[in-house]
Specification:
- The protein is an all-alpha fold.
- The chain has a single domain (about 45-405), classed as Glycosyltransferase (Alpha/alpha barrel).
- About 60% of the residues lie in helices and about 5% in strands.
- The chain has helices at about 1-15, 20-40, 50-65, 90-105, 110-120, 145-160, 165-180, 200-215, 220-235, 255-270, 275-295, 315-330, 335-350, 380-405; strands at about 75-80, 80-85, 310, 365, 375-380.
- Strand 1 (about 75-80) and strand 2 form a beta hairpin.
- Helix 9 (about 220-235) packs across helix 10 (about 255-270).
- The longest helix has 27 residues, at about 380-405.
Length: about 400
């Protein structure tokens, strides 16, 4: 019934906004033509003439245009309904991306946008220290995952500004996360999606590890370690990441990548070689599939045996981030090679002309009617692609510098 209500709401949105009909039809036609051409060329790797820096500016511009005056960033732009309400979770973990971009090119606007986003997030704090679930609609139910993603933004905002109120909010969020954690290290009680434990909450552990690293607070490090230990027990020898537990949904690449990225980054921060090794095992399986098939599926069944044949663009961008970080940690050039090819595919997916909500945006799926966030350009997709492109630029500069020295 929930899906039916969403479908009806989307249709009503298009009726109310007939000016969106042509952009919708154009995108569907363009994706149909492109996918037909790809089948004829056996899905060859993409080769674009769009420089990485130019693509990065396009994606960041989408985020800055989407940001509301109060600082919140919408979850998506729908080809049917337009912009959604602001999304606290994604606004939180976009903050580090905006600061990274500001430092990378000296852009004042993105740093100011990060400050506005932080101030808006501070206004949403609940009395417990937690942050609310879902879109910003006045619902004040606490959320473990949202709190964890917002915590990542708060930690970075404190590093950049040294504002005591931000640190206080970050510590309170960390304390709340510790208070609702299970004895085994998982979260499955108050504030969890569908009331279940999820291994993709490794992203929350990563945020707690960042907080502990900045404040040298043992209690937050312990909370992060306990969750990391629980997640590692769910990663099988095949590299399959069990325990994602999305009832009623397929296992989207986006959530598989969440598990891997959270484990990897948490392992790096906490100097846990076992975590880095586990993340490497899963990432290597997907790297080999990408090398062989020149694409990743939008969903995977258990042990990566099969899945739905559409592209989850956000999951692709996350895998690029993971491969680039593993190249940085291990020096294995196949990670770098795969990530550069993936980034070329992602850059080609960006729309450079059309309406404001589409230009520079990352679609949920390719083709755009695919199963993950269909007919939407999503803010977290923009965040992960921007991260991947900035990592590419940084690591290529370092690689070329070493080549010149040798």
């Amino acid at each position: 019934m929930s899906r039916r209500r969403k479908a009806v709401a989307e249709a009503v949105g298009l009726i109310k906004g007939p000016q969106r009909i042509f952009p919708l039809l154009f995108r569907v036609w363009a994706d149909a033509m492109r996918s037909s051409l790809q089948r004829r060329t056996l899905y060859s790797y993409s080769s674009t003439t769009r420089p990485t820096g130019e693509a990065l500016r396009l994606v960041i511009r989408w985020i800055l245009r989407a940001q509301r005056n109060d600082g919140g960033i919408p979850a998506y732009y729908s080809l049917l309904r337009g912009y959604s309400e602001s999304y606290p979770e994604v606004t939180g973990y976009i903050v580090p991306t905006l600061y990274d971009f500001s430092h990378a090119i000296g852009d004042v606007n993105s740093a100011q946008a990060a400050e506005r986003a932080t101030n808006w997030l501070l206004s949403l704090r609940l009395g417990t220290g937690a942050f609310p679930a879902g879109l910003h609609t006045g619902d004040e139910k606490p959320s473990v995952f949202n709190t964890g993603q917002i915590l990542q933004g708060l930690v970075r905002a404190y590093v950049e500004t040294n504002r005591a109120e931000i640190l206080n909010a970050a510590n309170a969020a960390g304390d709340w996360l510790a208070s609702v954690q299970n004895d085994d290290g998982a979260w499955s009680r108050l504030g969890t999606y569908q009331g279940s434990a999820h291994t993709y909450y490794s992203m929350v552990a990563w945020s707690l590890a960042l907080l502990a690293s900045e404040t040298k607070t043992t209690r937050h490090k312990v909370t992060a370690e306990r969750n990391l230990d629980w997640v590692l027990k769910q990663i099988e020898p095949s590299g399959w990441t069990g325990g994602i537990n999305l009832k009623g949904y397929p296992t989207f690449l986006h959530f598989i990548a969440y598990v891997i990225q959270g484990v990897l980054e948490c392992g790096i921060v906490l100097d846990r070689r076992d975590a880095v090794a586990a993340a490497s095992r899963s990432a290597w399986v997907l790297l080999r599939k990408f090398e062989v098939h020149k694409a990743l599926l939008g969903t995977y069944d258990e042990h990566f045996k099969s899945g739905m044949k559409f592209v989850c663009l956000t999951g692709n961008a996350q895998m690029s981030c993971i491969w680039l970080r593993l190249y940085e940690v291990t020096g294995e050039l196949r990670y770098l090679n795969a990530a550069l090819k993936m980034n070329e595919l992602l850059k080609e997916s960006l729309q450079t002309r059309g309406n404001r909500g589409a230009v520079g945006g990352v679609a949920g799926s390719y083709p755009t009617w695919g199963a993950y966030q269909p007919l939407r350009y999503i803010s977290w997709g923009c965040k992960f692609l921007a991260d991947a492109l900035m990592l590419e630029l940084r690591l290529k500069r370092a690689f070329e510098a070493r080549a010149c020295v040798s």
